[in-house]
Amino acid sequence: MEESKIVKAHKVLLSNRKTGNFSGVIDVLSFDVGEILLETEQGMLLIKGADLHVNRLTLEKGEIDISGRIDSLSYSDGNAYGKPANESFFGRLFK
Q1: How much is the pLDDT for 39?
Q2: Which of 40, 49, 58, 94 could make a disulfide contact with 71, Cβ separation 3.0–4.6 Å?
Q3: Cβ atoms 66, 73 nearer than 8 A
Q4: What are the helix (H) ranges across 1-95?
Q5: Phi and psi at residue 5, in whole multiples of 5°?
Q6: In contact, 38 and 29? CB cutoff 8 Å
Q7: Could you please report the per-residue DSSP string of 49-93?
Q8: Contacts of 19 (CB under 8 A, 6+ apart)
Q9: Separation CA 83–CA 29 (nearest Å)
Q10: What angle do CA 92, 14, 66 make, to 5 degrees?
Q11: Measuring CA to CA, which residue among 19, 49, 16 is closest to residue 34?
Q12: Residue of 88, 89, 25 lying closest to 54 (CA atoms)
């Protein structure tokens, strides 16, 4: 029997490039005032900008609210570049 993964909804609400509300967040991998890296139900999400702040984080619900100047949102698949899906993101990054 194959094990099927239940995918939760992933939503992005961006207001005036100043605030963002995200759902379907699995984990926050890193953040600073210039970028935030999230693991979401739809892959890795890199948010770049300036003066970025995490205002609310609820991993139990999979939600995060951020503020600051949001310049870009960029997605990548969890198993990018043909690497196994069980290898960590940073393991793939530093190979």
Answers
A1: 94
A2: 49
A3: no
A4: 89-93
A5: -95, 130
A6: yes
A7: EEEEEEEEEETTTTEEEEEEEEEEEEEE-TTGGG--TTS-HHHHH
A8: 65, 66, 67
A9: 19
A10: 65
A11: 49
A12: 25
